[in-house]
């Protein structure tokens, strides 16, 4: 086993996988759950929506300033879907 294999995936790879999972699975689930059970999931869905909007506005500001890495660009594209 070489050193790279022992370390595992880089933080960038893990971040991309997590964003894809959140966008493809968690966000749609929370949307439906909040409609079905507003009392149980409404508060959580609202907080997640606020955090996603906050992250998207942060990415948008970085794009406008021109200081965005390619990993951040890919992440913001995924979160917009």
Topology:
Blueprint: H1 3-7, H2 11-36, H3 38-65, H4 70-80
Helix pairs in contact: 2-3, 2-4, 3-4
Molecular structure report:
The protein is mainly α and 81 residues long. It is built from four helices and no strands. It has helices at residues 3-7, 11-36, 38-65, 70-80.
The major β-sheet equals: none
- How many angstroms does the end-to-end distance come to? 38 Å
Shape: flat
Work out the number of β strands.
0
Mean pLDDT: 78
In the predicted model, the low-confidence regions spanning at least 5 consecutive residues are: none
What class do helices, strands and sheet pairing give? mainly alpha
Rg of Cα set = 16 Å
The percent range for strand residues is under 5%
SSE string, helix = H, strand = E?
Answer: HHHH
Task: Classify the helix fraction into a percent range.
Answer: over 70%
Number of helices: 4
Q: What are its keywords?
A:
mainly alpha; 0% strand; 81 residues
In short:
The chain has 81 residues and is mainly alpha-helical. It has helices at 3-7, 11-36, 38-65, 70-80.
């Amino acid at each position: 086993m070489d050193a790279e294999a022992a370390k595992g995936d880089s933080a960038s790879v893990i971040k991309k996988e997590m964003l894809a999972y959140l966008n493809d699975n968690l966000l749609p689930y929370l949307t439906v759950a909040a409609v079905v059970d507003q009392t149980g999931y409404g508060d959580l869905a609202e907080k997640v929506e606020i955090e996603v909007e906050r992250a998207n506005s942060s990415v948008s500001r970085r794009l406008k300033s021109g200081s965005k890495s390619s990993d951040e660009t890919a992440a913001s594209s995924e979160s917009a879907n």
